[in-house]
Design brief:
The structure is a homodimer of 242-residue chains. Helix content of chain A is 36%, strand content 24%. Chain A has 8 helices and 15 strands. Chain A is elongated. Chain A binds a DNA duplex (30 and 30 nucleotides) through helix 6 and helix 8.
Chain lengths: 242, 242
DNA sequence: GCAGTTCTGTTACATCTTGTTACCTAGACG
DNA sequence: CGTCTAGGTAACAAGATGTAACAGAACTGC
């Protein structure tokens, strides 16, 4: 079972990054999107398991977007909105929403409801009555989250620093999805204070992780560079519950 | 589509009949139940599409019932409860609920949420997403899109830059079809801003790719020039699904 | 506390990528 | 053969990325 891929649609950058961060921490892949065109592009480009859709998108309207999507897409949609009156919720369900969450929301509750919808959509087993994923495998490597240890394909244990481990987790939560330095930094700095310096910390961190998990760090096969964009874990990841 | 059959589990007779009435009015079959034994009897006796489960059932506890049901049943469950605090909701989702509705509730909203869960539960779990072609072969060369690597007929891996790889992909997608510089540029610049300068970037790029995949770059056999028109990949291409 | 070790961000410089420019060659055509 | 034009490509420049070296922070064992 691969990691669920969610689309986070919100025109507020802060809200989007906040939600993305929480989702990443909970083991989801979260892709940002701002317009209907971007949503459709993502749907065509690859598997999307669920869309978190803001109702008020500047001049756009989330419900109308959802209604149009529903004409040819059955992807699960959860509305996230500051409009919490019953008739507004009703409008959401009428255009085919799977759930409707009022802002401000409890992040843990959001995650729980995302899991519930995903479970019902039969794309991922609900983690509710199962253990949280504890083991990730990729390209022969194994990351055991419980023991917090990494083993190479040959079985040797590789010591990663805290920061390197955090980076690996972020990547494992988003296999094959290019992440910008900003996204990575945001996911690493859970207490993101927004003071994002334009330093090269992420580059150096990536280089250090490469030095430990790449066969030939000068020619990285796993942790690839997306020039002008960021980095991507260029392999599939399988997960197992403990 | 037959009429959905719901189980209404509540120990309060008034609440039960009220919910049942609303459900009937909305075209559902609503069966009352009060205990776990009754629930299981119904599940075994016939099809049940969804359970509306009160959290506080006298001396029984709805969440525990749900947790036990989940061991062998995947029937959708919506909790209906006067307990609306976040941690109480979380507890509901943790035992596998599909939704959690606080009392008192708006009957129309209840119906809408029932419909949403039913829709999601009854949808076909197909939604197979098509894999993209992963391997291209041409004139002995192999381009593995998954690994993003190119191998010469002799088996050597050839390192292409991102831009060169993109060009190769465009050509592989259009074998034997001459492409103008404008068409190539448009295909390469996904975020085509329309500002197409008449520069020689494509010519130089073609030259660089030739330098890597042509036996004799001065006498190109694969990436031919169509004088006055553009360039063409002068070979057949076979593709394989992963 | 304290000294040694490890971790992590910054900096500086090397390297890689890619578009532009300038100049050259190959064909076309008379 | 001379001229003209499209195309080839070396050289350059700008920008992005890789990484060694350094220093302060954090941590460890005592």
């Amino acid at each position: 079972m691969t990691i669920p891929r969610l689309l986070v649609v919100d025109d507020d950058e802060d809200m989007r990054s906040m939600m993305t961060r929480f989702l990443h921490r909970s083991g989801f892949a979260a892709l940002p999107a701002g317009t209907e065109a971007e949503i459709r592009a993502h749907l065509e480009a690859g598997r999307i398991d669920l869309i978190l859709l803001d109702v008020m998108l500047g001049d756009e309207n989330g419900t109308e977007i959802c209604a149009r999507l529903r004409r040819d897409q059955d992807v699960p949609v959860i509305f996230v909105s500051a409009l919490s009156a019953d008739h507004q919720r009703m409008a959401g369900y009428e255009v085919g929403a799977d759930d409707y969450i009022a802002k401000p929301f409890n992040p843990d509750l959001l995650i729980a409801r995302v899991r519930a919808v995903l479970h019902r959509a039969q794309r991922t087993p609900s983690l509710a009555y199962r253990r949280r994923t504890e083991t990730y495998r990729f390209a022969g490597w194994v990351y055991d989250a419980r023991r917090d240890e990494v083993r190479s394909p040959e079985g040797f244990e590789v010591a990663l620093s805290r920061r390197e481990t955090a980076l690996l987790k972020v990547l494992l939560a988003n296999p094959r999805i290019p992440l910008t330095r900003e996204e990575i930094a945001a996911a690493l700095d859970v207490a993101g204070d927004g003071t994002d310096q334009p330093g090269r910390a992420i580059d150096v961190l990536v280089g250090r992780l490469r030095g430990k998990i790449e066969r030939n760090p000068r020619d990285p096969q796993l942790l690839r560079t997306e020039r002008g964009l960021g980095y991507v874990l260029a392999t599939d990841v399988t997960t197992e519950e403990a």
